[in-house]
Amino acid sequence: MMSRQMGNGPDDAIRMNIRSALQGLVDKEKGALHAFYDKSDQEGRERVEMLRPVFDALNILKAEIGDIARISVAGAGHMATVEIKEGSSSNRMSIGTNYGGNANSEFTIEQAEFFSWTGDFSERMHRFASGEEVLQYVMAEISKAIASKQVLAERKK
User: Fold this and answer.
1) Number of Cβ within a 10 Å radius of residue 73
2) C-alpha gyration radius of the chain
3) Residue 53 above 90 pLDDT?
4) Phi, psi of 108 (to 5 degrees)
5) Residue 110 is inside which H or E element, if any?
6) Residue range(s) defining the domain that contains residue 115
7) Core-most of 23, 35, 110, 123, by most CB within 10 Å?
8) What pLDDT was estimated at residue 7?
9) Which of 87-91, 133-137, 146-150 has the highest mean pLDDT?
10) Overall domain count for the chain
11) Is position 28 within any domain?
12) d(CA 46, CA 6)
């Protein structure tokens, strides 16, 4: 805080009281902010640990499916994105965990689908109790794209 020369007058006593009160409030706010950030840091570490097995499996899946979907895991390990683009439609899934009072109590997929030939767009939030359920859902969505691509190729023959 800025300091100013003080004499011995009544204004100086008021100034000292104000400084002391302000410093007390600043210290209290700093304590609250440290607690908030400590909790946020802990939730972030828990999120990364919770998602690690899912993301390890997604990286293996990525090698298996080739260019059917783009799978990317954030460098910090707190979320991943699966993007399926086929023809004029797209399906984007953001994988993570829930936030808030019960942070990291469930897995989430925020899914957005767009169909350009009709202009339809949908967004959904899916909640899962386990990483296995997340992988099953993602693989089911990818399998639709693989099946579609294969059927269209077979019909051209």
Assistant:
1) 20
2) 26
3) yes
4) -135, 150
5) strand 107-115
6) 51-156
7) 110
8) 60
9) 133-137
10) 1
11) no
12) 51
The closest of 95, 83, 145 to 125, measured between CA atoms, is 95
CB atoms within 10 A of CB 53: 13
Locate tokens 């639709």: which residue?
144
Q: Is residue 105 part of a domain?
A: yes
Residues in CB range of 90: below 8 A, 6 or more apart: 83, 84, 113, 114
3-class state of residue 106 by DSSP: coil
What whole-number percentage of the chain has pLDDT above 70? 95
- Structure tokens that stand for 27 in this block: 């210290």
CB atoms within 10 A of CB 122: 10
Give one DSSP letter per residue of 57-78, joined into a string.
HHHHHHHHHGGGEEEEE-TTSS
Residue 93, Cβ density class (10 Å: 0-12 exposed, 13-18 middle, ≥19 buried):
buried
Could you tell me if residue 132 is inside a domain? yes
Residue 103 resides in a domain = yes
Q: What is the pTM of this model?
A: 0.78
